Amino acid sequence: MTITQSFLSPADALTTDEVEFRWRLALRERLVRIDLRPTRPVECFGPVGERDLGDLLITDWVCPQADGIRSSNVARRDDDALLLFTASAGQQIFQTADETVVLRPETVLLMSTRTSGRFVIPQELRKRTVRVPMAALSPFDTGGGVPGCLLLDTSRNSMASLLQDFLTSIDHHVGRMSSAEVEGTRNALLVLIAGVIRASRADVGDREFLPLLRQRLEKWIVDHLAGGAIRVADLAAAHSVAPRTVHRAFASSGDTVGSVVRTHRL
């Protein structure tokens, strides 16, 4: 089943208290419980739109300048879910116990509802969020759990870019989908989210593995300079990796196999 509706539109004749109540209700039901502190009058809250895929709650927000806090006690009381954020305009700054990240256009942010911290919206923000129940994501392979906070740059991360494009494309189809099409789209979105998380874990592994491998490869080059030409295939075979991994190991430091070989020969 899909729900497509919009509430809190600028045309609504609501009092200040009604606007505040409905915004806080939308936050609690479609995102998380937070202590929200607008820096301007509540009337400046913009429209909130819903485009749901069954139990995946997709929401479009127009947010004013604001800041807020989510304590660990509040986080523990929320249902276990994964939150996905994208932005089309403006910024939102998140500060957790471990790091500070900035949601902006061309980024995708994944965050667990168990994560606590502070946030600041310094100017009007237009963002889309997806609340994914852990029960919905659990059948899909994420490589082991969900991240507490993971920010990805779509200009550098192909999977994150694909996920962002997929979310945008839903707008053109969700209103006329059949129940079977909604279910298929829901599952496709979950596959993409799980794939992004799984790929991010592989990247972390590369950051630890590739520099160490590069050191070993360079030592092998030095030890075998007198034996003639140094071939990538020989390097790969000696270290039980693919030739592509050899190239990536040297690229991690801005080098190539050829440049390192020439340096040592000189």
Strand and helix layout:
Elements: E1 4-7, H1 16-30, E2 35-38, E3 48-51, E4 57-63, E5 66-70, H2 72-77, E6 81-89, E7 92-95, E8 100-103, E9 107-112, E10 117-121, E11 125-133, H3 134-137, E12 149-153, H4 158-169, H5 179-223, H6 232-238, H7 243-251, H8 257-265
Helix pairs in contact: 4-5, 5-7, 6-7
* Sequence of secondary-structure elements: EHEEEEHEEEEEEHEHHHHH
Helix content: 40-55%
Mind telling me the C-alpha Rg?
24 Å
- Uncertain segments are 1-11
Through-space gap between termini: 68 Å
Strand content: 15-25%
Structural class: alpha+beta
Q: Tell me how many strands there are.
A: 12
Order of strands across the main sheet: 1-3-4-11-6-9-12
Describe the main β-sheet briefly: 7 strands, antiparallel
Annotation field: number of helices: 8
Q: Give the mean pLDDT.
A: 85
The backbone outline, from C-alpha atoms, is elongated
How would you describe what is shown here?
The chain has eight helices and twelve strands. The chain is elongated and about 85 Å long. With 266 residues, it is of the alpha+beta class.
Briefly, what is this?
By secondary structure, the chain is of the alpha+beta class. The protein is 40% helix and 25% strand.
List keywords for this structure.
266 residues; alpha+beta; 7-stranded antiparallel beta sheet; 5-stranded antiparallel beta sheet; 8 helices; 25% strand; elongated; disordered N terminus
